[in-house]
């Protein structure tokens, strides 16, 4: 065995031991005997033969992994074209949510497609939804979710040039705040750069390792220039925490854990920084009731918007809104 391979093996053994110990600590004292005679697995990833030991360790420790050049130029150009058709209102997509930047929405009506800062829930648009079914993406997703895969939430983000109020920033948050299904470790986001992204146009900013923590309380940050609807940030954000700026090329994809604290900086260019993303979950996940948890505030906002948008009452639950949007993309729809 080479020295490098030997070191990796040692690292894997070390991680397996520490995760086993964590599992033992977390075990309720119910009198059950906890046996660990079977080979232990890493906590956050599965061995499907795709990720190298180094890549698995990187995700286990950092909560994200950057895969270069995963989506082709042709596919990305197709997504861009379809997004433009939607903005020009040449195609109407059932269930689609269109968002405008708050600084632009509150100033004047701009009929231009450029006012759209984000579209969500494009699962009924075959061209855009093709992103969620790309085999090369699903091969990676399976390493985190296992073989039964649901596409739960879809977005195309068109981060606008900042209008001078820093509203183009996305505050630091954990995506799990928005989700009412578990377990968190079987959820993953795929986020693909549709062009070069860097600190100038507002790339993703992540706090490595924060996926090993718990779900934090989220609130609107106190930003002078205003904050976009539902852009909650972790309460008590510490700007001193070590950050990593994920600079990416067109087609590069980052996979990240839903507890990883991340955000994105201001877009200081004149262009609209584009990215497409999908949150996947194992179909074996289960829904939870968020009543009495830190997620009550976001549930309230989601319900208010759903009630206004679809003119419905309290009969629809948060669980229903996810079950309706979710789409099976691989394997069997076992639970979600
Ligand atoms: C649901 C689960 C999500 C899971 C997400 C997983 C992780 C994702 C993390 C995120 O991305 S969090 C941010 C996600 N954001 C949203 O989901 C927001 C969805 N957006 C909407 O529902 C609509 O765009 C919105 C309700 C904000 C406005 O839609 P409308 O069609 O009603 O817009 P309209 O132009 O009629 O404006 C209505 C009012 O909203 C205001 N407005 C529009 N865009 C806004 C904005 N961006 N922020 C704040 N206010 C906004 C607008 O100025 C106006 O205010 P006034 O009533 O005071 O005149
Ligand atoms: N009070 C806050 N609460 C939550 N998130 C915040 C807060 N302040 C800044 N952030 C977030 O921190 C991240 C870094 O933002 P910031 O604009 O400070 O730097 P940047 O644009 O990433 O980097 P730089 O401008 O130094 O190249 C962004 O996601 C931003 O939205
Ligand atoms: O593309 C971005 O700016 C990040 C958006 C994000 O983190 C989110 O919508 O959850
Ligand atoms: Fe996010
Ligand atoms: Mg900045």
Automatic annotation (TrEMBL):
In the record, biological process GO terms are:
fatty acid alpha-oxidation
Give the required cofactors: Fe cation; ATP; L-ascorbate
Q: Which residues form a coiled coil?
A: none
Pathway as given in its UniProt record: Lipid metabolism; fatty acid metabolism
The question of whether Metal-binding is a record keyword is answered with yes
- Please tell me whether the keyword Signal is annotated for this protein: no
| GO annotations of cellular component type | peroxisome
What superkingdom does the record give?
Eukaryota
Q: Please list which residues make up the signal peptide.
A: none
Keywords of the record: Dioxygenase, Iron, Metal-binding, Oxidoreductase, Vitamin C
List its EC numbers: 1.14.11.18
Task: Please provide, alphabetically and separated by semicolons, the GO molecular function terms listed in this UniProt record.
Answer: L-ascorbic acid binding; metal ion binding; phytanoyl-CoA dioxygenase activity
Q: Which reaction does it catalyse?
A: 3-methylnonanoyl-CoA + 2-oxoglutarate + O2 = 2-hydroxy-3-methylnonanoyl-CoA + succinate + CO2; 3-methylhexadecanoyl-CoA + 2-oxoglutarate + O2 = 2-hydroxy-3-methylhexadecanoyl-CoA + succinate + CO2; 3-methylbutanoyl-CoA + 2-oxoglutarate + O2 = 2-hydroxy-3-methylbutanoyl-CoA + succinate + CO2; heptadecanoyl-CoA + 2-oxoglutarate + O2 = 2-hydroxyheptadecanoyl-CoA + succinate + CO2
Q: State the similarity comment.
A: Belongs to the PhyH family.
Provide the protein name: Phytanoyl-CoA dioxygenase, peroxisomal
Organism lineage reads as: Eukaryota, Metazoa, Chordata, Craniata, Vertebrata
């Amino acid at each position: 065995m080479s020295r490098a391979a030997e070191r990796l093996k040692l690292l894997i053994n070390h991680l397996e031991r520490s995760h086993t110990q964590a599992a033992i600590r977390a075990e309720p004292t119910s009198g059950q005997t906890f046996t660990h005679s079977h080979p232990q697995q890493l906590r956050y990833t599965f061995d499907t033969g795709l990720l190298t030991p180094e890549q698995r360790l990187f995700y286990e420790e950092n909560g994200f992994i950057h895969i270069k050049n995963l989506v082709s130029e042709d596919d990305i150009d197709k997504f861009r074209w379809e997004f433009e058709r939607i903005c020009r209102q040449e195609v109407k997509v059932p269930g689609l949510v269109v968002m405008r930047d708050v600084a632009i929405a509150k100033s004047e009506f701009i009929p231009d497609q450029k006012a759209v800062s984000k579209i969500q829930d494009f699962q009924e648009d075959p061209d855009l939804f093709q992103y969620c079914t790309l085999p090369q993406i699903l091969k990676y997703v399976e390493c985190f979710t296992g073989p039964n895969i649901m596409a739960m939430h879809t977005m195309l983000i068109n981060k606008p040039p900042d209008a001078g109020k820093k509203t183009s920033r996305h505050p630091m948050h954990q995506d799990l705040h928005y989700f009412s299904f578990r377990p968190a470790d079987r959820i993953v986001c795929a986020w693909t750069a549709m062009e070069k992204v860097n600190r100038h146009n507002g790339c993703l900013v992540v706090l490595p390792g924060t996926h090993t923590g718990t779900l934090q309380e989220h609130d609107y940050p106190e930003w002078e220039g205003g904050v976009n609807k539902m852009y909650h940030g972790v309460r008590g954000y510490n700007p001193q925490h070590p950050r990593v700026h994920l600079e990416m090329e067109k087609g590069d994809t980052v996979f990240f854990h839903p507890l990883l604290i991340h955000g994105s900086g201001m877009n200081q260019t004149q262009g609209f920084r584009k990215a497409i993303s999908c949150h996947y979950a194992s179909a074996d996940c289960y829904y939870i009731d968020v009543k009495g948890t830190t997620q009550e505030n976001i549930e309230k906002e989601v319900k208010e918007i759903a009630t206004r948008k679809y003119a419905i009452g309290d009969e629809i639950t948060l669980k229903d809104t996810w079950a309706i949007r979710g789409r099976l993309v691989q394997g069997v729809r076992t639970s979600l």
